[in-house]
Amino acid sequence: MVRPPSARSAVPGVGRLGLLEPTAADSLRELAWDNVESIPVLWALSRAPDADLALNTMVKLREQLGTEWAALDSAVRTDTSLRGRLFALLGASSAFADHLVADPSSWLVLKRRDLPDRDELIADLLAVVKAVPEEGPHAGPMLFRAQIAGPEAVALLRRRYRDQLMLLAALDLAATVENEPVLPYQLVGRHLTDLADAALTAALSVAVARVCKDGPCQVRLAVVAMGKCGARELNYVSDVDVVFVAEPADPTATRLAAEMMSVGSQAFFDVDAALRPEGKAGALVRTLESHLAYYRRWARTWEFQALLKNRPMTGDLELGQRYRDALMPMVWAASERPDFVPDVQAMRRRVEDLVPEDLRERELKLGHGSLRDVEFAVQLLQLVHGRVDETLHVQGTVEALTALAAGGYVGRDDAANLTASYEFLRLLEHRLQLQRLKRTHTLPPADDEEGMRWLARAAHVRPDGRQDAVGVLAAEIRRNAVRVRRLHAKLFYRPLLESVAKLDSDALRLSPDAAIRQLAALGYTSPEHALGHLKALTGGVSRKGRIQALLLPTLLEWLGDTPNPDAGLLAYRRVSEGLDDQIWFLRELRDEGAIAQRLMIVLGSSEYLPDLLINAPDTIRMYADGPSGPLLLSPKQEDVSRGILTAAARYEDPWRAVAAARSLRRHELARVASADLLGMLDVPQVCRALSSVWVAVLEASLAAVIRAVEAETGEPAPADFAVIGMGRLGGLELGYGSDADVLFVCDPRPGFDETKAVKWSNSVADRVQKLLGAPSTDPPLHVDAGLRPEGRNGALVRTLAAYTAYYQQWAQPWEVQALLRAHQVAGDQELGVRFLHVIDKVRYPAGGVSAEAVREIRRIKARVDAERLPRGADPATHTKLGRGGLADIEWTVQLMQLRHAHEIPALHNTSTLESLDVIEQTKLLDASDVALLRDAWLTATKARNALVLVRGKPADQLPAPGRLLSAVARVAGWPNDDGSEFLDNYMRVTRRGKRVVERVFGG
Known about the structure:
Blueprint: H1 24-30, H2 39-46, H3 51-65, H4 69-78, H5 80-92, H6 94-102, H7 118-128, E1 132-133, E2 144-145, H8 152-173, H9 185-211, E3 220-225, H10 227-230, E4 240-247, H11 251-267, E5 271-272, E6 285-286, H12 288-297, H13 301-307, E7 311-315, H14 317-332, H15 340-353, H16 371-385, H17 397-406, H18 412-436, H19 449-458, H20 469-500, H21 512-521, H22 527-538, H23 543-560, H24 565-578, H25 583-591, H26 593-603, H27 609-615, H28 618-621, E8 625-626, E9 629-630, H29 637-649, H30 654-677, H31 683-713, E10 719-725, H32 727-730, E11 740-748, H33 754-773, E12 783-784, E13 797-799, H34 800-809, H35 813-819, E14 823-827, H36 829-843, H37 851-867, H38 886-900, H39 912-921, H40 927-951, H41 963-971, H42 979-1000
Parallel strand pairs: 4-5, 4-6, 11-12, 11-13
Antiparallel strand pairs: 1-2, 3-4, 3-7, 8-9, 10-11, 10-14
Region (Adenylyl transferase): 504-1003
Family: Belongs to the GlnE family.
Enzyme class: transferase
């Protein structure tokens, strides 16, 4: 109860009222609200989202109203309902506060306790411009002609529209101050849509008066609402998307549509016709037949998704209904289009990419766990199942969720929870937009406590006894975002799993046909097989089957966003079955989200990795994040190499020693390839890691063979033995599909016959090749000695003296060039270094290479280009031998080494990339040319590695545009799955590199 007037001390202090401004007490005295009789007013004021803003606005209103202030003051003191609407509005919206101050008499609008219906709104806005029904042959019930059509019409309409919007906002907000009923979210959206319909009806009446001045309009014009307006779920501040249909679509119709958009955009909100055929580049107005012709022949999948919400709005409603009736069958058939899945996924990624990374957690519309997640999922399920189920032919998101639950396409509880989260997020969006009547979807930063406090009060969020309103709001935002993300996965996949494993006795189950439709829409090209994999994974009553059923909704969502979900699901089944006896596997997937997501990306992107992971399962544990970053990046390369050598050294039997080395190699290949595919390693890091593993395996195998031979003969080795790496192995630039090019060199030890030493060395080299080349499920270990003197016709192993003699007398230019990449990799280190000293005089000749040798090298390169490119290969996209590919860049660098290494010691380098750095530093080429060569080499290497990861076998030719190329693009790190863009970039980069090659190598 209110205390008697004499108890003046009962008036609360300004701080308790939530008033923070120093002038608040003076303002209360100015309004005569500093007495006991004003206590109900003060307590209502204290509940306003921003009490200071509300109070300051009331002071301004008193000044503006003058003698009329008494009426407002009396209404505020006596009418609890009005007081709640007014203070809530003024405390929540500075824009409406300014509107009231500019037109103080409009406070009378707020006396109304209910909302006008659609017909009343239309009549009210038409009355502003004194519109009368249009006459003539094309007149209809929604076509009017304004009698006030000059510039003043826009100002009159803006003011009246703002009054109607203000009334809705006040009724919507009133519950934050007084115990007024809360307006349901759907009611607010529908009323905003009715108001938009009325607004554009009035705008069209002005357009009719301006365009058709000489008589009745001779065209039929239908205005069709799209997007949120079409679905009757508008925000307070939204673009209104429209499409125009006219008969005929002549200049008059175009002028009429353009004028209506102009008036509407000036007076009410942005009117956007960009969803029309061909977008902003297309005709503003089309006939119905023109619309149909476009959608039959040219429309993309996303355009049919947009049409899902079309609704005749104003103008010629009969023509608008014919438009809808003709197009909706195409909409419901869209899921059968061959490009349906990639188009939908590409659109989803493009939308996500619009949001900067640092705003994604604050973005209500497009961020993680956002409104768009709900809307996108619901629309996709409607398109998939609406073809055969007419109960899904609804437009609103909440209505669609209800229909999907009723049809058994989503769980009832999931639909209810998702609806609750959707409405909560839409409420926050509405409150943010009301603050300044600006289109925004971004929450205040976490450190903006005042902004969050205002939002909490505006959204009617109260303290819960444990934390204040800001804490409660932050917790609710997190909870709902997490719930949306979780349910987004369940929405698609939980019903699928219910169809193969009974998880809930009360749940409706998708029919087999519906399950197959849903899997097809989620990107599975063989949905029947996918359904079989799901049955196998969740079959039986075992605990593992139940865990799989709980994991799979999220796993399948991640798989669905990979280039090849079918192969990924099969690979996941194989991995799961291969690790059936490993209790840690499912536990890690359940408890470590990073492991599960990264595993799905890997399995759905690569045919190279699944077998490696099955045989080296501990690699999966390394998908987790450690204290200093991903565990995939934690091993040091020298530790890996040492581990391979140590493991192999434990065995006397060379087969077992090589098996141990292979095992660790398998694990390391799985680690490197996983890190590469997940974008954690760059090209040079991948090449160095792969090369060092090859070197360690060679070293371990050679040591094991020598130990075995010595044990078999009972004699020490008669020769020192070294393995010289050639080609990419010598440059430590191996790719996934590279062989190990080597030379074998021996040197008889004192006291041993040279013939015996050479025979022994050939036996060792042959056994090493056979051991490493033995059949295996692992990626092959092919040791190629084809670069030896005289090629494959020459001796497999030569002595150091024989090599010296040969290179001094018989070395051909191509052999000299090949020696540029020779480097000691295994065996006797001292012998390897002596070999390098011998060939230094050959590969770095004093005075540089001769002109004749240069001509010969160019001739050989031309022959290679003409003869070695495989039949049918495209030279523009062959990563090794094609235009601007690896061979072009490497031959160019090697020619420069032959010419200049005798005077630039830093060019005594086997690495292409490091040699390019030296060429740039010594200004042998312009930095821009070096950059083009480097970019071409890196691009070609990345593409070549991606080809192997995707296809699971060595390949050099980029595929034609299609699913395979898109997968290669994704694995190669291209920012989207548009394979054509990736290919265009590849060809552009290599073409520029080729220009430098032609100038530098070709002279």
